[in-house]
Amino acid sequence: GAVVSQHPSWVICKSGTSVKIECRSLDFQATTMFWYRQFPKQSLMLMATSNEGSKATYEQGVEKDKFLINHASLTLSTLTVTSAHPEDSSFYICSARDWLAGGNEQFFGPGTRLTVL
Amino acid sequence: AQRVTQPEKLLSVFKGAPVELKCNYSYSGSPELFWYVQYSRQRLQLLLRHISRESIKGFTADLNKGETSFHLKKPFAQEEDSAMYYCALGNYGGATNKLIFGTGTLLAVQP
Predict the structure, then answer these.
(1) Are the C-beta atoms of residues B94 and B28 closer than 8 Å to each other?
(2) Considering chain B, what is the average pLDDT of its residues?
(3) Which residues in chain B have their CB less than 8 angstroms from residue A97's CB?
(4) What was the pLDDT predicted at B4?
(5) Model confidence over B74-93: pLDDT tens digits?
(6) Are B2 and B90 in contact (CB under 8 A)?
(7) Would you state the pLDDT for residue B93?
């Protein structure tokens, strides 16, 4: 089946530093990937849609200069949390659509736990 | 506006009891509905989609366009069904791509 990986699985950083999270589709090509935040015991909040070879589409209220997204290849999207602050601490999850399969099904990564001190 | 509503945050049942997790949606186009499940300490994974009309792990869900519902059902709950369940709405055949998730229902199956 379609597998999505994320790296790192967890990261702790100091306030003011930047953190990069990678999302990879391992056995399929993904022209579209998605980045979500999940707060404890809450649902997923879509942050942005990452499009291969073009700019990401951000959801309302999400700062694009704060959360930089790069989708340079059909199997890799990165999310960089710039100048991280404690309020950015969260569980970040990516997902990907199988370009060849079509449809709206998304395959999810295991998530990255970010803790900003 | 596109919206998915899961009215129950928590559903607690005993093993062997029937389960129904409610999901209602609001969408003007042709909806594509999914149920995703998240077991403890695991990633979100697809349980079933209305287009497939299949039964997975004993769960079924029927799209009712008249009631704009896509409730998830299982006749006899098992302890291993305990998990977080999310209903999600997509745009079938459209270019929007993104899924809209409900707030989720935690299913707790007691022994």
Answers:
(1) no
(2) 91
(3) 97
(4) 94
(5) 999 999 999 999 999 986 65
(6) no
(7) 59
Interface of B with A in 52-71 (CB under 8 A): none
Query: Is B92 in the A-facing interface, judged by CB distances under 8 Å?
Result: yes
> What's the one-letter identity of residue B19?
V
Q: Residue B43, by phi and psi: left (phi above 0), alpha (psi -120 to 50) or beta?
A: beta
Q: Which residues on chain B are in Cβ contact (under 8 Å) with A49?
A: 97-98
pLDDT at B96: 57
Are A104 and B99 an interchain contact pair (Cβ–Cβ within 8 Å)? yes
pLDDT at position B94 is 57
In degrees, to the nearest 5, what angle opens at C-alpha B80 toward C-alphas B74 and B82?
75
Q: Do B86 and A105 touch (CB under 8 A)?
A: no
Largest pairwise CA distance in chain A: 41
Smallest Cβ distance to A46: which of B46, B92, B98? B98
Residue with tokens 């990986």: A5
Say if residues B49 and B32 touch (Cβ distance below 8 Å): yes
Q: How far from chain centre, in Å, is Cα B76?
A: 16
Is B43 near chain A, with CB under 8 Å? Answer: yes
Q: What is the pLDDT of residue A72?
A: 83
